[in-house]
Design brief:
CATH class: Mainly Beta
Order of helices and strands: HEEEEEEEEEEEEEEEEEEEEEEEE
CATH topology: Neuraminidase
Helix content: under 10%
Number of helices: 1
Number of strands: 24
CATH superfamily: TolB, C-terminal domain
Strand content: over 45%
Distance between the termini: 37 Å
Strand order of the largest sheet: 1-24-23-22
Number of domains: 1
Oligomer: single chain
Shape: globular
CATH architecture: 6 Propeller
Mean pLDDT: 93
Length: 306
C-alpha cells in the first residue's frame, strides 16, 4: 500500500483534514470525445460515452485505453448504468424523444423506457439501479431557472416509468443511492447543492432535504465510498470534493485552478476489481481522469440480473 494511500486512509478514518491529491499523479485515458459520465460493471469494468460524437466506449484500465463499441448518433448520451450481464442503460437527454436505451456488449440497441406514460422524460440525465433492479432516473427538466425537474422510477425490465417525486425539484443531475438504500442523493446543478429524497418503506418518495450547499460551484456527479463518504465532481471550479455526512465536513480531494491535469470533471465512479481506482469524466476535454489509490474503496454498485 503506497504512502499516499496510507495517508488518505488515515485522514479519512480519523476525520482529519485531507491532503489534496497530487495533480501530477492524475492519470488520463485519452481519446474519449468530451465524455460526460462514467459507469462501472460488476467486475469493476468501466464505460463512458462521447457527448459530442455519441460514441460508446469501454475503458481498458490495464492499458489505459478506450475502445468504441457502439454509437447512439445522432442522439447524445449523458449517464449510464450496467447490469449483471454487461448491458448498458444510457440516458438520452435531447427532446423531443428523451429516453433510456439498452446497449448490449456487442453494441446492439433497444428502447428501455421513454419515461412516464402520457408525459415522457423532459431530459433524462442519469440512471442508477437499486438492489431489486428498479432504475431511478434524474430528469433534469428544462435546464432553466424554472424548477421543473423530477426523479422517475422504471421497474425491472423497463417500460413506462413512474413519476417518483411528485413535486418538481431543482435541475437533478448526477444521482446515487446510499449504502443502506434509505435515500436517493442527487445533484442540484443550478441550485449549487446536493440534496436527497427519502425512500419510504413502501418504496414511495419521502421528504426532500438539501444536504450541502456549495455556493459558486457547479456540481455535476456524485458517488459513495465504502465508508459512506459522498464524493462530488464539480464542473466549475475544476474540483472533486468529499463530504462526510456524519460530521458535515466538506473537503477538497483534488483541485486544479489552471484546468490542466483536472479539467471540467462531471461524473465520477470507483472502478477496477477492488474499486480502488477513481475515474472522473471531462466534458471539456477528450480524456477520462484517473486517480489510483485514492485511499478508499468505492461502494459496490448495484448491477442487477434483469
Amino acid at each position: 500500500m503506497s504512502s499516499v494511500k496510507n495517508e488518505w486512509r488515515r485522514n479519512i478514518l480519523n476525520r482529519d483534514t485531507l491532503q489534496p491529491y497530487d495533480l501530477e499523479s492524475i492519470g488520463h485515458i485519452n481519446g474519449v470525445d468530451h465524455n460526460e459520465s462514467i459507469s462501472v460493471g460488476p467486475r469493476g469494468e468501466a464505460y463512458t460515452t462521447g457527448f459530442i460524437t455519441c460514441r460508446v466506449f469501454r475503458l481498458d484500465l490495464a492499458t489505459n485505453t478506450a475502445e468504441a463499441f457502439s454509437s447512439t448518433a445522432p442522439r447524445r448520451v449523458l449517464g449510464q448504468v450496467v447490469d449483471a450481464d454487461g448491458n448498458l442503460y444510457c440516458a438520452e437527454p435531447d427532446t423531443p424523444g428523451s429516453q433510456v436505451i439498452k446497449i448490449t456488449p456487442d453494441g446492439k440497441q433497444s428502447l428501455y423506457s421513454r419515461g412516464p406514460a402520457g408525459r415522457g422524460f423532459m431530459s433524462a440525465n442519469t440512471p442508477v439501479f437499486d438492489r431489486s433492479g428498479n432504475m431511478y432516473v434524474s430528469d433534469t427538466g428544462s435546464w432553466s431557472e424554472k424548477i421543473d425537474g423530477h426523479i422517475c422510477r422504471i421497474p425491472p425490465g423497463g417500460g413506462a416509468a413512474e413519476l417518483w417525486t411528485a413535486a418538481p425539484i431543482d435541475t437533478p443531475n448526477g444521482i446515487a443511492i446510499d449504502p443502506e438504500e434509505k435515500f436517493i442523493y442527487y445533484v442540484e446543478t443550478w441550485g449549487n447543492s446536493i440534496a436527497r429524497v427519502a425512500i419510504k418503506k413502501d418504496g414511495s418518495a419521502g421528504d426532500v432535504e438539501r444536504v450541502v450547499h456549495m455556493p459558486r460551484h457547479i456540481p455535476d456527479g456524485v458517488a459513495f465510498d465504502e465508508d459512506g463518504h459522498l464524493w462530488i465532481a464539480c464542473h466549475r471550479p475544476d474540483k472533486i470534493c468529499v463530504f462526510d455526512l456524519a460530521t458535515r465536513r466538506l473537503e477538497v480531494f483534488a483541485e486544479d485552478w489552471q484546468g490542466e491535469a483536472l479539467r471540467g470533471p462531471c461524473h465520477l465512479a470507483f472502478a477496477g476489481p477492488t474499486r480502488e481506482i477513481l475515474l472522473a469524466s471531462s466534458l471539456d476535454k477528450a480524456t477520462v481522469h484517473r486517480f489510483d489509490n485514492p485511499g478508499v474503496r468505492g461502494l459496490r454498485l448495484n448491477n442487477p440480473k434483469l
